[in-house]
Write a structure and sequence with these properties.
Elements lengths: L1 E9 L2 E7 L4 E6 L5 H11 L16 E8 L6 H6 L7 E8 L5 E5 L2 E3 L1 H8 L3 E5 L9 H12 L2 H47 L6 H13 L1 H17 L5 H15 L4 H30 L4 H20 L5 H67 L6 E13 L2 E10 L7 E2 H4 L2 H17 L5 E5 L7 H15 L3 E5 L3 H4 L4 E10 L2 E8 L2 H13 L5 H12 L3
Parallel strand pairs: 3-13, 3-14, 8-12, 12-13
Antiparallel strand pairs: 1-2, 1-4, 4-5, 5-6, 6-7, 9-10, 10-11, 14-15
Helix pairs in contact: 4-11, 4-13, 5-11, 6-10, 7-9, 8-9, 11-13, 13-14, 16-17
Length: about 550
């Protein structure tokens, strides 16, 4: 229950505080005095977005605080879930700073608007004359039916499944799009892998090829030079190097006994002779291995051309980079294969979630359908109370083939005001006053079936007058026996039913206009109701009527 509302620097409100009580509270005042502004301020602490336009004085912040009695509500789990300090008397505060930044607090703990709205949905239901248009909104109609059928659990289960399904469906579409984008890349990578695999690349092959090609290209020259060297070393009988060195060795040995230095030189000559003989042997072996082979040279050149062409084609500089490209391409192909597996898994998951979602939607639809006849009968009864004795009301529930945010149903409200008239959509069949009464009847039924402690009607009595106004007032008074009811009204019949009566008026101070509010006692309330009946010049008849309205029982 809303116990108090304090407003500072909001619109044309400088500062005011209103205390509320259980039962029926009415707020009256001239048009434009600021009655609906008070409800607008209350909406801020219930999660409505705000900006600097709400500031009356742009140089200081706007401050709105509501005091709520939660003792009869079971909200401890909600407070614990959001790490909030639970108190039976809870304070909800909203501040809008000079630069437009907004902050919200629950018992001095900062909260975001999502949490604030979730809490507000358990505390207050505000309905204004502008909400009459909602009766034409399909989501609003289905929401009313769900509230009446008490489908909160079924709806929560369905929405969780639908959300999971839509999330998975979105992921599936992303994977499909990714797969389509990858088709060309996959084909290209497959081509690269096949081409480089067929090339049978090996690390270091290019350097080896370069050496082999160089060797075969100059094989004749190399072989000739080696042969000449071998000839000089050992083949030319007495003129070769080894023969001459052998003579030098013999000479040095023969005289080394006479000079120790010659002995050392003789040993060095021995070593040189052995080294040259070894060199001659290796030169001969090398010369024997070298072949002039044009066919092999052609094959090696073709292999080198292949590698160079591949490097140029794939914009790399070496054989090793080609091998790296092959490895990377193979990894990408494997990854794409994994993506295909994920796509199939996601497809299966999506099908399973859709099946579960449709099952939950059907359960929700069945619950709605079961409650329709009872809802219709209650509406007919309420309409009779509101002076529409021959009013008829039907709910048309149609199932769709696909699931939506609220299930598979569309809901249409059909209405006729007169006996024998064809049922039509409310927006086609009802006048403005009839729509107001229809909305009041709907809200009355829904709130009878809800646990919301506070219901607020903001000037929903548009188009209503006379005897009907009295019936509307009686229905509101009946509703106030189950809920705290706060009503902003222009009708004296409704104002007379209020247990508390507040009067909103404008006051000019320092050349500025401000909204103020006053709590009326019994006599003041009667005079205000008389003013609502006859205008500023209150007649005795108006006073008498006002007293009768105040004292009239249900």
């Amino acid at each position: 229950m809303l116990q108090a509302l304090q407003i500072e620097n909001y619109a044309i409100i400088r500062s005011l505080k209103i205390n509320f009580d259980k039962g029926f509270t009415v707020i009256t005042g001239e048009t434009g005095a600021g009655k609906s502004i008070i409800i607008g301020a209350l909406s801020l602490i219930l999660g409505k977005r705000a900006d600097t336009s709400v500031l009356h004085d742009k140089n200081r912040k706007c401050f709105i605080e509501g005091t709520f009695d939660l003792s009869k509500l079971k909200l401890q789990d909600f407070f614990q879930q959001h790490d909030l300090d639970y108190q039976n008397i809870t304070y909800i505060r909203r501040e809008v700073t000079e630069n437009g930044k907004s902050r919200a607090f629950v018992n001095d703990t900062p909260v975001n608007l999502t949490v604030l709205k979730e809490l507000a949905e358990t505390l207050v239901d505000i309905h204004s004359q502008h909400n009459n248009l909602l009766v034409n909104n399909g989501n609003f109609r289905i929401d009313l039916l769900d509230q009446y059928a008490q489908n909160a659990t079924l709806l929560s289960q369905y929405k969780a499944l639908f959300s999971a399904y839509k999330k998975t469906e979105k992921r599936l579409e992303e994977l499909k799009a990714t797969q389509q984008q990858q088709v060309q890349e996959q084909n290209y990578l497959t081509y690269i892998v096949q081409e480089l695999t067929d090339a049978q690349l090996k690390n270091g092959e290019q350097e080896a090829l370069e050496q082999q090609i160089a060797l075969l290209t100059h094989a004749e020259t190399i072989k000739t030079k080696l042969y000449q060297s071998i000839q000089l070393l050992e083949e030319e009988e007495e003129d070769n190097i080894l023969h001459r060195l052998q003579i030098i060795q013999d000479n040095c040995h023969s005289i080394s006994t006479y000079d120790k230095d010659l002995e050392e030189l003789s040993q060095r000559i021995d070593s040189s002779l052995l080294e040259l003989k070894d060199i001659a042997r290796e030169l001969r072996q090398k010369e024997n291995r070298i072949e002039v082979n044009p066919q092999e040279l052609e094959r090696l050149n073709e292999r080198m051309d292949l590698l160079l062409n591949l490097e140029h084609k794939h914009h790399v500089d070496s054989n090793e980079e080609l091998i790296s490209l092959l490895s990377v391409s193979e990894e990408k192909l494997q990854s794409m294969s994994a993506n295909n597996e994920e796509l199939e898994q996601c497809r299966q998951q999506c099908e399973e979630l859709l099946a579960h979602t449709m099952e939950a939607a059907q359960a929700l639809s069945d619950s709605r359908r079961q409650s329709i006849s009872r809802f219709e009968e209650e509406m007919k009864s309420k309409l009779q109370l509101l002076g529409m004795e021959h009013g008829n009301f039907k709910i048309e529930l149609t199932q769709q083939s696909h699931a939506g945010p609220n299930g598979i149903d569309t809901v249409q409200f059909l209405f006729s005001a007169n006996r024998g008239s064809e049922l039509q959509e409310i927006e086609k069949a009802a006048s403005g006053g009839e729509i107001s009464r229809l909305m009041l009847a709907l809200k009355s039924i829904i709130n009878d079936n809800s646990l919301l402690p506070t219901v607020i009607f903001d000037e929903i009595d548009s188009g209503i007058s006379g005897e009907v106004a009295g019936k509307v007032a009686s229905l509101m008074q009946e509703l106030s026996s189950k809920h705290q009811l706060i009503v902003i009204t222009h009708l004296p019949q409704i104002a007379a039913k209020g247990k508390l009566h507040y009067f909103v008026f404008k006051n000019v101070s320092e050349d500025k206009t401000f909204t103020q509010i006053k709590s009326l006692n019994e006599d003041e309330s009667i005079r205000e109701i008389a003013t609502m009946i006859s205008g500023d010049h209150i007649s005795d008849a108006a006073l008498k009527t006002a007293k009768e309205l105040k004292n009239k029982l249900l």
